[in-house]
Each structure stands twice: as structure tokens, then as C-alpha cells.
Amino acid sequence: MGDALFLHRLQFAFTLIYHYLFPVLTMGLAFLIVVMKALSFRNGGERWNEAARFWIRIFGINFAVGVVTGIPMEFQFGTNWARFSRYAGNVIGHTLAMEGVFAFFLESSFLSVLVFGEKRLSRAGHFAAAIALFVGSWLSGYFIIATNAFMQHPVGHRVAADGSLVLADFKAFLFNPWAIAQYAHNMISTVVTASFVMAALGAFYLLQGKHLEQARLFLKLGTTAGLISSVLVAFPTGDRQAKLVARHQPVALAAMEGRFESGARAGLNMIGQPNVRERRLDNPITVPLALSVLAFGHTASEVQGLNAFPERDWPDNIELLYYAFHIMAGLGTILIAIMAAACLLEWMGRLERTGPMLWVLMLAFPFPYIAVIAGWVTTELGRQPWLVYGLFRTAQGSSPTVHGGTALFTLLGFCGLYLVLGVLFLFLVAREIGHGPSPATPRREEAHA
User: Fold this and answer.
1) Confidence (pTM)
2) Where are the domains of the chain?
């Protein structure tokens, strides 16, 4: 059973991480497309319209692959996690259904209007379609995060006679304080991702000497939005999320910091290697007092260590949780530094002539992807060993009739299928990048001539 449980968890983790590589870009692009369409109303704004058309095509490719990779996750609740579905389905089924019925169809419908309807709509109508796409995309994100937030901090439910959970207060469930904080942190991280991708492509075109006018727009919007969103991810949204973890999941905070002993005036461990067997953090580099301040707002605040909790309630992979958290936090700091430097050079009018900075921007686009995946790994491992925190353990939730061999077989199948999808995705995106943002512009200029 232990091996089967591990494979069920591995399969869901693989499909979730792979799937999230696509919506993390589309949700951020949805916001930036609205910004570009808004800027197109200014004098000479057709350049922004052309930029928006290009990124709408990139959005469409990401959206299609995201849909295909997201569908299997819904089925896994019934196939791999049937006991969990019976236990909590009467609660989380509401937001999962709302995500599919309202948000997904709103998003997909207005994407088709954006791609195919520009010639049939006024400029204002096309802008309204971009706003509707943004609303649908971000609503979809909220319903999914509200589902996850219930698993992190269950509210608005009651226990039925058969021991399962039923919804008792829909408002409390939907507007869970954990969901609101997690949503703000997550959605701004999607803007960070989209901004880095946009800036990277602008830098790529400038280094190649192609599509220079559009490349400058990509670089300007990407670096500006990237700096603002990178700061907001750290504070206040990341800070608020950390305080909720400290209050409601103190054992997770202890594991994230590799902290075994409790005490006040706790320092923040920047570097170190958790030694679970010896119950200590090896080779630590610590910022004094910082953890007490960040977690509870005062240097004298006590922060509990892992030794304060029964070992059966510890996260079951402390090392991976620790490193995932520190990768997320470290990359977040690096992203702020990159965008601050780029914006300073842009303000000085030197960015597009500074080759090393363009190379940094072009090569840095994987960093936000790594950071957001590390963030989700931190979130999910921190909740362990619970599926619904404090109520229902992960070991109780898997399907008893789906054995390890079946889980491994389907996992290998997903690996093969997603490899093919990944190659197809890269081909389609590379083709769009090769065509560039304004392939029709030369023909229009010749026609004017």
C-alpha cells in the first residue's frame, strides 16, 4: 500500500507540475494583453495592437496545451483518490465545477473572439473581449486556489453522519482568508512569469536585430510589469502567506526553515542543510531575529521547532520542503534584482544598448517558472501528512483498488504523452517567434508606397 500511495502521489505531482507550466503563463499574459490593448487607444497605439495580436497567439497555444494537460487531473480525483473524493467531494466539488462551467467556458469563448473576431468588432469591442478573457482566466485561478485553500485551512464545512464533509457555509468556504492570500500571491507570480517571458523575447529580438520596434515595446512593458510584480510577490502577498503558515501550520514553517528547536528571537536561515536524523541544521547562515519578525511581527515572538510536534505530524519530506522553499525565496530575490537593474538601465535610456543585460534578461525567463513550481511544492509538501489539514490524512485518501502497478503504468503513459505534447508546443511557439510579432507590416508599408 505504501508503494501504491507513493506512486499515486508521484503521478498527481507530475501531472500537476507539468500542467501548471502553461496556465502560469496564460494567466499572466491575460493581464498584460489587457494592458497592451489599453495602450493601443493612445495616439500611435497601433504598435501596441500588433504586440497584443502576437501575444494573443502565444496565449492560444499555451491555453490549448494547458487544457489538454489539465483534464487528466480532474479524473485522478476519481481514479487515484477515490476515498478523498468521497470524504471531501461535497465541499470541493463546488469550486471545481464552477471553474469548469463558468471560468473555463468564459475564457475559451472570448479567446476565440480575440483570435478571430478583431475584424468583426470595433476597437472597443475587441478591448472588451480582452477584459473578458482576463476575467475568465483569473476567475478560473480563484476557483482552483479556493479548492486548494480548503485543503490547507478547512473552513465552512461540517461533518455528516457518515463521517464525510458537507458544505455548511458557502461564503466562508469561498472567501476563505487563506484562499484570498494565496490567490493574490499566486496570480501576481503569473504576472512575474509573463513579464519575464515578454522581456526575454524582446531582448532576443534586439540581440538578433529583428522586429526592433516591437522588441522595444516587449522590453519596456516586460521590465516595468516585472519589477512591480516581483516586488508585490515578496511583499505584501508573500509576507501575508508566510504569516498564515506561521499561525495555522507552524510545523510546516519549522520544516521550511529547518528549525528543530523552539524559541523566541528566532533567526532566518538563509543557507544550511537539514539533518533530520540528528535533528539539526548543518552549516547554517542565519539572519538574527528575522524569522520572529517575519512570522509574527515582533523580535520577541516565539517560533516553534519540529521537536514541539509529534513526529507523525511532521511533513514527510523535510529536506525537499526545505530546499523548495529556499529556492523559491532565493529566486524571488534574484528576480527583483534583475528587473530593478533592467528598469534602471531603461530609465537611463541604455537598456537596449547594454548587451550583457539583454543576455541576462533573455536567459532568465526560466527562473520564474522554477520559482512558482518550487512554491507549489512548498505549499503541498508543507500540508503533509494531511490531505485536508488536521482532518484527513494523505494515507487515507488514495483508491484502495488501484494498485501500484496500475499507477506506474499510467504515470509512464503520461510521461510519453506529455513529451509529445511538449515537443509540439515548442514547435508551435518557435514558429510564432520565427514569424515575429508583425509579419504583415512590410506588406502594408509596400501598399502605402
Assistant:
1) 0.94
2) 191-402
